[in-house]
Each structure stands twice: as structure tokens, then as C-alpha cells.
Amino acid sequence: MRDRSALAIVVAQVFVASLMIALFGRLFYLQIADGPRYQQAALDIQSRDIVTPALRGLIVDSRGEPLAANKAGLMVTADRSVLDREKDKGRSVLYRVAQVLELNPNDIYIRTRLCGELPKDEQNGCWNGNRYQPIPITKDATEAQVLKLLERTDVFPGINAEPVSIRNYPSISGEQGTHVLGYIGPVTEADLNNEEGKRFYRNELIGKAGVEYVYDEALRGTPGVKTVIVNYKESFTRESKNITPIPGNHLVLNINAKLQSAVERELEASVLRARANGYNRYRFGGKSSCYGFLS
Length: 295
Known about the structure:
Number of helices: 11
Number of strands: 10
Strand content: 15-25%
Distance between the termini: 107 Å
Oligomer: single chain
């Protein structure tokens, strides 16, 4: 009887010792061996990326004349981390901003909401970035409007302004090269989930058609990324990294803007003459006008 009791005690002790060894082994693995991976996962949950798009490269013709350039504008932005601390979540502030900018208050409210905060049928124009970076309200503010906003920070908390680059197509020689140059637009969900593995950030503008699309990667440059760490209250605690943006490359085309303009004018005149003579089946902007003319 005593032998059986002693054996049972030994078995229990071995079992408990095995559990303790397994437990300590698992703790060692989680905290020491695999600790860095879990630490990085925790940081990923707590980190927020603030993305600054790079200056887009120019597109010029064979003589160096700009076909696509960047002009300076004034962008008014909203800081959600400040607005959310207001009693009404910043609604009254945005209403006063709308009066200064002469915009629809409801449009401004939607522009400063994260897309996940709105129903799907109201997400047109919502902010697809995060609340830790300046949210654009408009890029066409005047100096007088900006001064009104910045002079009264007590009336307009969380509202700021900064110079911004706006893509434009100057058409110096009078050419209409939209069919060749294409255009740029905001990143969509389809762009984010592209099959080519291209990486985009939500607040970037990317090429959507034409040369802007084909050479987008070279023109777009590398955006700047500042990563901040937040606590469980979503409040900023520290900065993790800060990578400055790298401007995009310039692109030189074989198109001659003056020749393009001259041919376009002559083509339009020919189409108008043909119409005057009763040949209405031809129209300017059809198949014959979809090419750029080389130097």
C-alpha cells in the first residue's frame, strides 16, 4: 500500500515538474527567442503612419517646354486630434471655416471624416488616410482667407494652412495634349488591391491615364513617411521614424508642343470646313486626333 502511495506521489511530482518545465520553456520562447516579433506586432498595432506625398516630376516636350508641371497653392487643413477634443467634435469650427472659405459646411464635414466613420452611401469625398495627419479641406484658398483662419486660432482650433503643389497642364504653345498626357487622381481601393503588387498610400495622387499612368512610378517619387506611436487613448506618445520624401523624376517626351498645337489647329479647321461642306460624319477629337506629333 505504501509502495503504491509513494509511486503515485512520484508520478504526480514528475507530472508537475513536466508542466513547470513546459511553462518556463514557453515563457522563454515568447519573451526571449520570439520576443522581437511580438514586440514589432505590438508596435504595428500602436503605430500610425503620416504620409507626405513627394513632389511629382515634370513632363516636358523635346525642347524642354513643360507639358505637365506643378503650381503652388494654399491648402487649408484640419487636425482631427484637436477637433475631436471640442465639445461638438469640431462641427462648429468647421461651420465657421466653411463661412470663411465660402464652401458648403456639409461638404467640409464629410471631407474631414474618416471613410470608416460614414455609411457607405455617404463616403463620397471622405478622408481615406488617418486622423494623425493634416486632412485637406481645400487647395484653392486665397491669402486673405488663410490669414483670417490663422489670425484667430482661438476661433479656429485645429485649422492650419500650408503651401501645396498642384498638378497643372500649362499648354504654353496652345496644344491640347490631354489624350497623350492623361491625368492624375486619388488612390482608390482598387489601386490599393492591385495585382501588380504596387504599393500606394491612401492620400497620394497617382497617374490614371496616358503618360501620367504609364510612367507613374518614375514621376511620383518616394513619399515621406513619419511613424508615430499612440497609446490606448489614441494620443500621440512618441515618434518612431521619419523618412523625408524624394521628388519624382522628370520625363522628356519626343512630342514637339508647337508642332502639336499647329497640327491640332489645322485639323480642327479641316474638320470645320468638312462640316460646312456637308461631311458631318467627321468630328474633331476622333481617331485622327489621338496622337502626339513628334519633333
